[in-house]
Amino acid sequence: MKTDKSEPERKNLPASEPASVETAPVSNFIRDIVKDDLATNKWDGRVVTRFPPEPNGYLHIGHAKSICLNFGIAAEHNGTTHLRFDDTNPSKEDVEYTEAIKRDVRWLGFDWGDKLFHASDYFGKFYDFAVQLINDGKAYVDDLSADEIREHRGTLKDPGRESPHRNRPIAENLDLFHRMRAGEFPDGSRVLRAKIDMSSGNVNLRDPVIYRIKHEAHHMTGDQWCIYPMYDYAHCVSDSIERITHSICTLEFEDHRPLYDWYLDQLGVYHPQQIEFARLNLTYTLMSKRKLLALVEEGVVSGWDDPRMPTLAGLRRRGYTPESIRDFCERIGVAKRDSVVSVALLEHCLREDLNKRAPRVMAVLRPLRLVIDNYPEGQTEEFDAVNNPEDPSGGTRKIPFSRVIYIERDDFNETPPKGFFRLAPGKEVRLKHAYYVTCQNIVKDDKTGEVTEVHCTYDPESRGGGTPDGRVIKGTLHWVSAEHAIDAEVRLYDHLFAKEDPEEGEDFRQNLTPNSLETLTDCKVEPSLAKAAAGDRYQFLRHRYFCVDSGDSKPGHPVFNRTVSLRDTWAKVQKSQK
Ligand code: ATP
Ligand code: MG
Fold first, then answer.
1. What backbone phi and psi angles, to 5 degrees, belong to 247?
2. 62 C-beta closer than 6 A to ligand 1
3. Which end of the chain is more exposed for a tag (fewer CB within 10 A), N or C?
4. Residue 279 among the catalytic residues
5. C-alpha 192 – ligand 2 centre gap (Å)
6. 53 CB near ligand 1 (under 6 Å)
7. Which helix (H) or strand (E) holds 66?
8. Could you give all domains of the chain from N- to C-terminal order, each with its CATH number?
9. Which pLDDT score, from 0 to 100, does residue 34 have?
10. Does residue 250 have its Cβ closer than 6 Å to ligand 1?
């Protein structure tokens, strides 16, 4: 698997919530096609695209690429984008999914206005068009079973064989199709097929199935139908009905394009142009809806919005911003050739965005008590802290300080290795925003030998981070006042999959990271976080970005998800390449 680490020219979307196209977009072959079409007035100056999800799962980061492309290109030319539910398969679809899809498209910053459609809106039209094909001798009812049809289809090397029912008289086809619809036949007993070419080099043109019998209720049309159209047929006809101009889809549909064109040509109806682009693949990221559903159903994750999921709902809960995802989709560009993008780029886009907007706060994830023996008992003072040095309008807040504080367990080492500039016996460090402290002695647990408390003295002259003698202190620690701290839970995530290609090998489950979630239940965070609301994002000093969990957080006892850690592998790669 090749990792595409090239970074196309970047474009900043405005920090405002909805997506807009105020800056000139980077050109790509689809944008070029649309521009050329406008220049030649091919579609009367219209640009109408669509995003056509099947409501059989939640949207993921791959869909985001398609959404940004479809909505983006239309918006650039004052066009429109339809949100169309491709709901032709009643067995896998659910209203839970349609609602989630709408929420996620909106969250990403796009608006379909009144252009919300369902393929199922057109079931009547699909039927009428199928009758037209039969009348024109272009479709027939076949009694072969699914297995027999498969056998007759041939292979890439060998041509297919014609069904014995292929040359039925039109009247008989009409009668049988009518009775299929009327519910006279059981599932799988008959299908309607297009009469194209059983020896075509393109297997998709070997008399594809148009309709199948399925005695199943549909979430939109109830029991009105017991025959349902196949994707290839329903899709192009829907595009035609909606007068789409550019029907943008992923590369695997390239071989289906002749069929897309065949249906519309035979029907003699309005005919959009299908254009294929390479789907998004991301390292360490599973993108198949079917497999993501398996993770949900098997309880590997807590749901579609588990913060480790690549779904938009999962990314949102994890703390991703819509801006960072749109920025990512713009940076990866649009190509005709499949590649794999490093997930580090997605994380990098998020870091860049959060760096601008996330307030800096202090949180101690693995607390160790630190007592300042020469600090007056019962005294509290407050330090002013800048909320975000990157954001001049971000303001300041007060941080209380007292005799007992918590520091990070890792920030103390009884036998420090060379180059350890944090706290150790006899060593002095700076407490961020506050004072210099020097470690005088430690308290240990008798049984385990674990350090349970560090005793220090502070230098009152160092208030706010400096001394009259100007001595150099290398280590700066974050801390929270024990008396004022808020208890919190913090969830640390790793990639859900340990393999760059999660689908490598026999079963993707074997590639799961053994412990992709570590829960820390004894964290201490600064009191300003008492007002943190679900979805709020922060930079925990020296830990990077965290977000208040929208599922389990409670007032007074926040739960934080680690959004991204300190390691910016993308920036590192970029640096080493320079
Ligand atoms: P399936 O059809 O197997 O259920 P799907 O991922 O193709 O899964 P759809 O709901 O059909 O799901 O996808 C809606 C749109 O999103 C399609 O136009 C599809 O081409 C596009 N899309 C899906 N996955 C990706 C991806 N990884 N990168 C870019 N576009 C994608
Ligand atoms: Mg699909």
1. -100, 95
2. yes
3. C
4. yes
5. 22
6. yes
7. helix 61-76
8. 29-123+233-353 (3.40.50.620), 139-228 (3.90.800.10), 359-577 (2.40.240.10)
9. 97
10. yes
